[in-house]
Amino acid sequence: MITIAALSLLNALTTSMEKTTGEAMQLSSGYMSKYEMVDSLRKTLRPDFGLTGTTVPANVKELLDPAVNIKSIVEAGTFPALEEYIESLEDGSFDPPLAQPYAPETDIHLYVYPVPSKPSKDPRRYGRLAVFPTFTIDQKEFLINNAPLYGFVLYGDSGLYFIGFNEMKVQIAENGLTDTLSQFQKQPIPLTSILVTEEAILTATNPVAPTTESTGQYGTMYFSGAEKPLIVVYGGIDVAGVKSGAYMPPLFQSLYSKYNIWIANDSGVNSSVSGGSKDSNGSKSYQELNQWLANKGIAPPSRILYAFSGGYKTAKGPATSNNSDFSRVCLVDIWMGASTWWPNYAKSNTAKVSYFYTSFGAGEGGAPQRDSIISTLGYPTPFSADTTHYDTKHMDTNNKAIATL
User: Of the residues 202, 237, 260, which one is the last residue of a structural domain?
Assistant: First the structure.
């Protein structure tokens, strides 16, 4: 499947096309990672190259069994051996044989594969390719001239490749309109079919970007529609001098079309107004947010409280005085130390709490608190068994949490 970052733009594009042409598109296939690609390839090996092959390395043969889950292979650390073996095989080792690539006339990209090929060559492994059963003539005409406004270009006869909304503008400026739009085509798209202009693409605004507005002293709202649920975010301490009010928003890029998201200025939460008061436990900032919503006449259908790292302290206020506001609470590698406040909260609110963690993020003396929450929520142990909530990197626990929203 296509990456999360591109999905909101893809959804917006297909919705626009359905309204314009009256025809809907159904996503067919695509690959998100090298793991899925290798998994797909090992399942199509000819018998003499697979389980019954006589020249298969002993450390690889058992990995070719489709009954062995690719996830378990990755977790066991044996995936590199499997990938190396798959990469060493010729196209005819597979049934059906791997497709020969297109050879587009432009030189921007050398190969275009209509079906999966070697993992290192096929762009599907990068999560940028969405494949559909087929395009009608009307759909194709629409996509040639509208997909670039969403960061996509046509890929072969039935795919969309995600260049990126901003990167599209860079490529248009550097390579020109025709080469950019035709880079994944066997033959260049006829000039008579290209109605969109360079200027239209270069001046386009992101169709899924939220509007931003300060709610007062303590935070910023990323707003995309009054009917959307609300996420209330208290981020961590400064990172390399950058406040969480600046480094947290990009992490939520994939959710801006789905939620309205309020993000605190910093972990303090310090006032952005000269002479303003510090919001030590989050109560003032949450009150400010509620006043902003009331002034706008907005009543979110549901709310999620999201606390990352040092945001553990300022999230306590809303979780205490307005706990019933939240249908879900995400605790993302929060610092706890010796305090049992959040473990006790998890015990009282088990049904709505999710916890994402590293082995060290709870801080000095925080291991018992971390383990208490893990036990309360019934997460698998050891850590490595919990691929949904555990990560080895502190900032990356946000990716785990956001993937569940």
Answer: 202
